[in-house]
Amino acid sequence: MDNLNKTGKKQIALNIISGNEKSNKHKGFGAGSIDLNSVSPIIIDGGEAKIDIGAMHAKSKVERGIKFSANKEDVPNGRQVWLVWVAVDRTPEGQLYGGATACEMLIDTEAKRGWKILADHVNKLDYAIKRRIMLDELGPVEKQALRTLLITHNEDWWNRSSSELKSALEG
Questions:
Q1: Given a cut of 80, is residue 20 above it in pLDDT?
Q2: Going by C-beta distance under 8 Å and a sequence separation of 6 or more, which residues neighbour residue 27?
Q3: Which one-letter DSSP state was computed for residue 120?
Q4: pTM of the predicted model, to two decimals?
Q5: Considering only CA atoms, which of 14, 25, 23, 24 is closest in space to residue 56?
């Protein structure tokens, strides 16, 4: 896929699994470590979904400059923002979207305050890596935004994806 957009700038792309078979084995040094090469974070804010690699380290565009609390009441005027972890699988037929999980955040940009449960974000990342589909908490607008982004990014991957993912993102 060509990663240049209309302005000639490089677009952010979903990561794909490394073609290096040795990196995909779970033996020896690094055994039990998490391989993030097949996972990409997507931020859904205001009904728009965008790939934001900064979210991998809690530094997405919406998270920068925000002081987070684990107490929801600390962010009474926060808007709902979703972080969706999407894992890409490689099969003999080609790549596909293998796992997808959603994590909620509240962001009050003006007050520079936010709410999220970091443990939930880490657990959902792990579930996406394990190829689980957990998108029930998303509303219809967010589901449509995510569906549109996934199809637009790579329709072939979407077409090869599970019926579970497709039905989870139906309107």
A1: no
A2: none
A3: H
A4: 0.80
A5: 14
